[in-house]
């Protein structure tokens, strides 16, 4: 019970320390402005000749905004492996917790940050769709949206922890890869962020009622998302195992 209380206290301390920093608040604002830019300059025409408020277009919108959201989280993650962070750890190391528990707390903080950034992106979309199209029915958007954003977060979280644990600079290389993936999005089901996939796959389907294809989940897309999710969990497991090994050697 005492260990859980210590974890909660450290989690709230770390969360406050991240959320109320000017850098996170600035990145939150940047994500919101970028989301509005994507909607008003690109997605307002619809993705792959579908309506701007269709599931196809909404997923394409999420795919275009996910790189910025992921880079925001990775920048925070990189900070956990900086020299300045090591000074903070002198204060937090007094808590009776293992390295794996510290990793869990940090991952929880990063998850909250990602949820907040994603909430801003979705709130901008809801405002846009209600303001310009009087569209309010989002029940069918939940599962496709979760399948798109959740694997992105988990696989980059695992890769970020593992690479930054080796050297902080490797995490910045991962950020560069996210930039490249955003600029040169492939049109296959293995597109991590999904913008290229959702801009191309609807064009291969026959038009339905209303002149656009009804949303359908491609098996290859679902498999790819599942594999990204599993890969992220495995990478986190490797990081936890490496942390335990260091403690044993110490």
Descriptive overview:
- Helix content is 74%, strand content 0%.
- It has 250 residues and is mainly α.
- It is globular, with a radius of gyration of 20 Å.
User: How does the overall form come out from the CA principal axes?
Assistant: globular
Mean pLDDT: 88
Spatial separation of the terminal alpha carbons: 26 Å
Could you list the spans in which at least 5 consecutive residues all have pLDDT below 50? none
Estimated helix fraction: over 70%
Secondary-structure class: mainly alpha
Whole-number radius of gyration?
20 Å
Distinct helical segment count: 9
Q: Element order, helices and strands?
A: HHHHHHHHH
Tell me how many strands there are.
Answer: 0
Oligomeric assembly: single chain
SS strand fraction: under 5%
Tag the structure with descriptive keywords.
single chain, 250 residues, mainly alpha, 9 helices, globular
């Amino acid at each position: 019970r005492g260990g859980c209380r210590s974890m909660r206290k450290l989690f709230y301390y770390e969360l406050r320390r991240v959320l109320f920093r000017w850098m996170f608040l600035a990145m939150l604002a940047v994500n919101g402005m970028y989301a509005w830019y994507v909607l008003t300059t690109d997605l307002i025409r619809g993705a792959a000749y579908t309506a701007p408020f269709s599931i196809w277009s909404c997923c394409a919108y999420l795919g275009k905004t996910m790189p910025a959201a992921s880079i925001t989280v990775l920048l925070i993650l990189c900070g956990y492996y900086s020299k300045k962070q090591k000074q903070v750890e002198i204060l937090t190391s007094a808590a009776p917790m293992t390295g794996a528990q510290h990793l869990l707390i940090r991952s929880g903080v990063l998850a909250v940050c990602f949820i907040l950034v994603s909430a801003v992106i979705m709130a901008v979309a809801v405002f846009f769709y209600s303001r310009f199209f009087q569209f309010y029915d989002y029940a069918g958007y939940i599962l496709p949206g979760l399948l798109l954003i959740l694997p992105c977060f988990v696989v980059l979280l695992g890769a970020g922890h593992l690479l930054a644990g080796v050297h902080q600079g490797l995490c910045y290389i991962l950020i560069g890869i996210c930039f490249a993936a955003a600029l040169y999005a492939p049109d296959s089901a293995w597109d991590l962020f999904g913008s290229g996939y959702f801009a191309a796959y609807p064009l291969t389907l026959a038009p339905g009622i209303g002149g656009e294809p009804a949303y359908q989940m491609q098996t290859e897309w679902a498999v790819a998302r599942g594999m990204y999710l599993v890969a992220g969990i495995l990478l986190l497991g490797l990081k936890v195992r490496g942390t335990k090994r260091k403690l044993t050697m110490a």
